[in-house]
């Protein structure tokens, strides 16, 4: 007969941590799927300028707010 190992049951904290990790995986997966759907509508060259476009838009709005 081989070795017999006893594995203690998981604590409530461990169960909660596992549930939180599973929820985060589901949320991230859904987010990635939605983002892929949105990005598929734009060419890569357009996507590469999004950060610059955002900065310019924020600067424009900030300037408009003070005028």
Q: What does this 3D model show about the protein?
A:
The protein is mainly alpha-helical and 67 residues long. It has a domain of 31 residues. The protein is elongated and about 80 Å long.
> What count of helical segments does DSSP give?
3
Overall 3D shape: elongated
**Mean pLDDT value:** 94
**What is the first-to-last residue Cα distance?**
84 Å
Unreliable runs? none
Strand content: under 5%
Summarize the amount of helix as a percent range: over 70%
Radius of gyration: 24 Å
The number of strands is 0
Largest sheet: none
**Could you give the order of the helices and strands?**
HHH
Alpha-beta content class: mainly alpha
In short:
The chain has 67 residues and is an all-alpha fold.
Defining traits:
67 residues; mainly alpha; elongated
Architecture blueprint of SSEs:
Elements: H1 12-39, H2 44-47, H3 50-66
């Amino acid at each position: 007969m081989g070795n017999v190992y006893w594995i203690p049951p998981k604590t409530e904290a461990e169960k909660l941590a596992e549930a939180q990790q599973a929820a985060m995986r589901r949320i991230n997966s859904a987010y990635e799927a939605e983002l892929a759907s949105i990005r598929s509508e734009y060419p890569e060259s357009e996507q590469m300028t999004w950060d610059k476009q955002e900065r310019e838009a924020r600067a424009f709005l900030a300037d408009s707010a003070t005028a």
